[in-house]
Every structure is written in structure tokens, then in C-alpha cells.
Write the C-alpha cells for this entry.
Amino acid sequence: MEMTSVTASVLASGPEIIIILGACAVLMLSLLPGPGPVRWLAGLSLLMIALAAGMSWGLAGHAQTVYSGMFTVDPFSTFLKMVLYLGTALTILMSGGYLATERVVRGEYYALLLCALAGAMIMVSGTDLVIIYVGLELQALSVYVLVGFLKTHGRSNEAALKYVILGAFSSGLLLFGLSLFYGLAGTTQLQELQMALAAQDISSPLLVLAALFLVAGLLFKLGAVPFHMWVPDIYEGAPSPITGFMAAVGKAAAFAVVLRVLMLDLTALNPVWHAAVAAAAVLTLGLGSLAALVQENIKRMLAYSSVAHAGFLLLGLLAGGPGGLASVMLYLLIFTFMTLGLFAVVVLLNEGAERGEPIQAFAGLARTHALLAALALVFLFSLAGIPPTGGFFAKFYVLMALIEAGHAVLAVIAVLLSAVAAWFYLRIIMLMYTQAPAGPARIAVSGPMRLVLFAALAGTLATGILPAWFLGWAQAAAAAGFG
Amino acid sequence: MSGLPVLSILILLPAAGALAVPFLRGNGLVRRFTLGVLFADFLLAAAILAAFDPTTAEMQFREAQLWVPALDMGYRLGLDGISVWFVLLTTLLGWICVLASWRAIAERVKEFMTCLLAIQAMMVGVFCALDLVLFYVLWEVMLVPMYLIIGIWGGGNRIYAAFKFFLYTLAGSLLFLVGLLALYFAGGRTFDMLALMDAEYPFRLQVWVFLAFLVAFAVKVPMVPVHTWLPDAHVQAPTAGSIILAGVLLKMGAYGFLRFSLPMLPDASLYLAPLMIALSASAIVYGGLLALAQTDIKKLIAYSSVSHMGFVTLGLFTFQQNGMSGAVIQMFNHGITTGALFLFVGLIYERTHSREIAAYGGMIKAVPIFGVLFAAFLLASMAVPGTNGFIGEILVLAGTFGVSGWAGTAGVLGALIGAAYLLGLYRQVLLGPVKIPAGSVMQDLRRRELACALPLLLFVFWFGLYPKPFLAILQPSLDHLMTQITQSDEAATEGLAWK
């Protein structure tokens, strides 16, 4: 009996184990002398991700909670893990060229990425606040190092330091809330906690305090207003592929925790956070959209745009119910495609991190590289939410969930701010199509980069033109989550 | 019918053309190819019109495929007696736009023609769509090629104009999206427009949705006070862009009222009719006064559009047989005449690079064919009897006087102001001593340019002298619309109390 439950637990966490073993292997192999092996490490990392994805797919049919109720494999976690695999794989593919330009070709880069992925996967599957915290720290610590990976660049170091300090602060908030919950209910396991909370008076000051700390810590990780300050600085300083990784994978993992904790398990807390999160969502959307208007650095602009998207995702959370859950999940998938696609273009336009990434780098791209400009056009229109791209359908489905839940006012605010946000995406399109080229430089698009661009384009268009399959998958996963 | 998915072919033909153009070599080939595709599309539209059954108000040539079954979202197409005319208008102006850009667009011809083909597919799709989401998607994605047409090939201040156009329309259409989602949940969780038309909605919901739709459609029409994007967009757009904007895009706002607001939200439409009539009447007069003050030919015609489209919305919200037929006729006519006027402004500008009214004079003497044709379109725009403009305006005015004396008076006043600025333009540019801007040559029309103008002239006189076939096809659909509105009787008494 004992033995079988241990075997089941190990099997269910197989994908995580594969990724962690992969990280160890990559770390070991990176110690081999010479530049030769490093080239193969990216391939090895991708292979490990493919294996983990295959295993997750295989496990998808058997929903189970293992490790004494601390870890679960359910359709919800499977869906989001697929998003994480996708985001990490695209990041790895776009990193090779970037690392070579910046002269930091080192094997541990891939090991750290795999560790971050493992952390994110544990966040997605954890059903115990302590396990979720462990996953979160594993992911955060790996990303701190990756953000500072350009050791000789001031910006990169500064960003890493800021991220460590602010990240530690937010972890502190989270831990404090967590310890209060443990004190109040005697457990950190989400299911038991919910049962204990349901029996208690929800308006007791200590419980409200605990909930507020928990929600504040989570909003910090999402980069939602008023805890968004770290986002632009760190997005700007980090190596571009890592910025993309944070925007796609980091965000998906953080939202997975928010969804599981607030929407699926601790539903008793709903009255405590609902109004606060509604205010935060509107402010996040508003501030992100407005602040992005005046940015001159592409990564800072994308940082604020990512804040705005987080606001939209929070609206899906507010909508609640299986519809709201499915809308957020679908949004995260689509966001991964379009944002990594655009980051791939940013990486290609990179002329050395020292000089920054001015928006002007896009000027005249349509004349010098028509195809690349057309791809960027699709990603930008998708981020702006213009049909028939995935970005439109993502927003459409969130709005649908909002209206179904009766939040018409929030829907109207959301669409008006989306119209504001369209401006800064259009601005880049105008730069590409109407300005004279900034320099005659030819951009060489390597094979892996082509693959990234193609995958992102295919995903962005497929989710927009034929969304039925993706929607069905998200809806089924969400419905299973609500049981 | 014959079983062929003709509407899909009509939409996919230019779409396929847009995909093929980037692979062609040489600007000449690109132009000829685009012209061929769009002309074939026009012939197909004409064939559809010929095969159209004028005895029924049913949707014809219907096609339906589920797109997202979980949300009952579908690829649903069909035409009735109203939309069939707009499909014809769109396809007619489509190939004329290619001819009008033959010389005017010399840079990035490939991209330009791709935009023209793409926007045609989307516009035809909008008029054929019988599914709310399909309609919305096409309606919004249409902004993209138009934005590029203005932003890349426009005049000096094109970037400002393109942004303004895009953001105005986007803000409006996003509210439309919220409204249509509200209808989806209230109307039984389907995006099938015909099913949504049959559903009943509570009065309060209708009013809110009507207001959300109003913003979207009013921006497109455009109605005062959200018309300010129009002069900028028109003045900066290349000729083909102006023709499409005036000829088709503005119609979509009014078409939205016809397709959504009136049949789906009849109670709210009746209740808010006074507001709509007041807005339309002020658009007619205010737009006319603005046009009167212009010194730039293109701007004058742009503001005249505001005034003329005011007649359309005025006619629609009279809920009179006359007024509504007049409104639809006016929509079609405005597309023909204003499209032609923008074409002529483009021809002048191509030759002299000036649009100042004061820089011209005596064109009838200098370039007789040009002068006479321009005069004919100006007179049609003025609604002189015998031209198409007359039928529409007179029917709208007749309908309006039936419900509101002062709105009718405003309409007559607007028509008089229209005569004033159009005759002013006519006198200055066409009559008097010959005058052209220094350093330019004024050539008469070439054969290619005549080929653009003559088909439009044909419609001007055909509808002016013998509008019966047009009305015959239109009538059953309009009657059907009238019954849809009057069926909701309890609110009718409430709403019409203002009379």
C-alpha cells in the first residue's frame, strides 16, 4: 500500500523529475572544456522538454492527487504545463543567437532555464501552499540569475539586484500570509484549508489580514498595480530572451497559482478579495496601457504592455466560473505565442545589449526585411487584439465571461482601455512601414529563429482563425477543475 | 440556387488574389492582375444580382458552417434585397479603385494592391455576414488595410490621420463588441443574426445595447459629433482610399443600424428615435455649413459626406415607408456620387498637385470631357431631378415631414446649403476664365480614366430616371424590416408618445 502510493507519486511527478534531471545533466555537461558541447546543450534541453511534454500528455488521462495531497495532476495543470513547455522551448530556440552576439555562450544558461521551468511546473501542480512556495522560489531564484546573466553589463546587473530585493520582499509578504493561514487553520493544504475556512467567520480581522497578504504577494508576482514597479526595470535590463520567458512562462505560472488558490480551492475567501482585485485589475489595465504610450525603449514598452495584459487576465479571474477560468487559460496560451513571437523579432533587431533597444530600431523594417516586418505586424495586431488573430479571440472570450457574469461595466472599461493600448502597437507598425530604414544592416535569421517565428505565427493565427479546438481543450480543463 | 457557394467565392476570390499578389513580378503585371480579379468579382456580383429573387424577403444564397460550435459561432452568409446592392456597389468601386490608382500609386504597388484586394474581401464579407462574430471580425479587420492605405500612401499628414481613423473606429467597434456579447446571452446563446432578430429583449437591455451600437455605427457613418476623423482621413488618403472610405466604409455604419439596431432592438430604436433624428438633422445642417467654409476641394466633399449621410440616418429613424426606402437609396447613391467626386478630385490632383478651389477656373472650356462629367456628378450630389440623388433625398424628406416638421425643415435647409456649396464649387472650378495652378498641365481624361467614370455615370442616370428595378428588389426586404419594427407594439406606444 505504502509502496504503491510512493510509486504513483513518483510517476505522477515524472515530468518534473525529467526536467530536473535534465537540468543536472546540462549543468554537468557544461563543465566540459571547449565551446563544442555548449552547442548541444540547447538540443538536450529541448529533448528533455519534449520528453516531459510527452509524459504530461500520457498522464493527462489519469487525474490524481499524490504526495499526501500536496501535488496534483489534473486537466488544469496539464493545460498550463503545455503552455510552460511551449514558452520555454521557444525561449531556448531564440537564445542561441542572442548569447553568441553578447558573447556569453555558457551551458548553465540552459540549466537555469530548465530549473526555472521545473519551479514553474511545481507551482502549477502544487496543491499545498508550502509546495507552491517551494516551486515559486525555485523558479524565482533561477530567473534572478538569468536576469543578471550579462555579467559585464550594468543594466543587467542592476535589474538582477532589483529583482532579488523586490522578489524577496514579495516572497516575504506571501510567507507571512501563509503562516497566518497555518496559525488559523492548522494546515497549509488547500483542500483542508478551504474546509476549515468554510467553517469560520470570514470577516475575522486576522483572516482578512492573512488573505490580504496572500493576495498582495500573488499580485506582486503577477506585476499587477500597485505592485508593478519592478516590471519595467527588470524587463529592460534582462537579456531579451529572458524578458520573453518572464512575460510568457513566469506570468503563466504565477497565474496558475492565483487561479488555483483563489478560484478553485480557497473559494471561501472570495468576498475578501473580490473588490480589491477588481480595483487592481482596472488600475493595472489602465496604468499599463497609459504608461506604455510614452516609452521609447521597446522592452520597457512591452513591459507595460505585459502589465496591461495582466490586468485583462485579472478580469477573467473576476468573471469567475468555468467560463472565466477557461478564458484566462486560453489567454495565457495565446499570449505565449504572440509575445514570444514579438520578442523573437526584438532579439533579431538586437545590436548589442549595451546600446539598449530603442523603438526606432523598428524603423523602415518593411523596406529592408519585408517578411520579418509582416510577421511583427501580425504579432503586434494580435497583442492589440485585432481579429482574426489569437489576441482578439483571447480578449473576446474574457469579455464574454465578464458579460456572462454580469460585469458589463468592467467590460466597457476594458474595451476602452484596449483602444488606448492599440496606439502603441500601431506606433511600431507605422515605424516599420512609413519611416526610412535606420541602418542598412542585414539581419541573418538562423534556423532555430525561423522555427520560433514560424511556430509563433502559426499559433497566433490558428488560435484566431480556428479557435474551436483550443477553446474546447481549455473549457474541458476548466470544467474538470470545477468538478 | 445552383448549389455553388457563390458568396464564399465572391469573398475568397479577392482574398486569394491578395495572397497571390506578393508572388508576382513587375508593377504592370500586379496592376493588371488586381484589375482582373476585382473585375471578375464585380461580374460575379452582377450575376448574383441577376439571379436574385425579388419576390421574397428571405435571405438568399445562404451558406452556414459552424465555426466554434461550443459558442454557436458560425460562418453564416446570405443576402437580402438590401445587402445585395451594397455588394454590387463594393465590387463596382473595387475595380474602379484599381484604375484610379494606376498612375497615382507608383511606390510599393504590390503592397497597395494587396491591401485593395484584402479590403474588398472583407467589405463584401461584412455585407454577406449573417453571424454576429463573423460580421464583427470582418468589420474590425477591415481597419487594418485601410489604416495602411492611409498611413503608407497618404498625403503629408498621413500618420496623424491614420491613427485618428484607426483609434476612433476601434473605440467605437469595441463597444459594439460588448453590446453584441450582451445580445448573445440575452438572445439564447447564439451568434446567428437571424435567430437574434427573432428573439425578444427586455427594454432596458435594448436601450443599453442600442447606445453601445450607436457609438460604433455613429463613428462609421459618421454622425456629428464623432465625425472629426473623417476630414483628416479623406484629405490624407490616396484617391482609392477616399473612394473606398466614402463609397463603402461610411455605408457600413448605416448598414449596421439597418441590420442590428432596427430589427434587433426595435423598442429602443423607437424610444431613442428623437435623439437619432436630432443628431441626423444637426449633421445635415452642421456638415453643410462646414462644407460651405472649405477652400480645399477634397475637404469640401468630405464634409458634404457628413451632411449627406445625415439624410440616411434621418430617413432610417422616421420609421416611414418613404423615409426608409429613401435612406437606403441615398446610401447607395452617395456611394456612387461621392465615390465619383473623390475620383475626380484625385484626377485633378494627379495633374496639378493642388486642391485649392481658388486655383482653378473654366475647366469646361479647358478640358471639356472632364468638365462635363465632373459637372454631372456635382449635380447628382446636389440631388437635381433626373439624377439618382433626387430620388433618395425627396423620399427621405417626404418621410421626415410625416413625423417631424422641424426635422424636415432642417433637411430642406441642408439641401439648400448643399446646393450653395456645390454650386459654388461648380462655378469656381468649371465656369469663368480658364485658370490652372502655375507650372502644371491640365490634360483631358484618358481612356483609362473614362473607364472609371462612365460606369458611375450610368448608375447616376439609371437610378435617376428609372429606379424601378432597384426599388423592386429592395421593397420586400424593407417591408420585412418594417414588420420587424412594428411587431413590438407595446413599446411602440411608449416610444412614439413623443410625436
Summary: The radius of gyration of chain A is 21 Å. The interface with chain B takes residues 381, 386-388, 392, 396, 399-400, 403-404, 408, 411-412, 415-416, 418-419, 422-423, 426, 430, 433-434, 467-468, 471-472, 475 of chain A (CB under 8 Å). Chain A has a mean pLDDT of 90. The first strand of chain A starts at residue 64 and ends at 66.
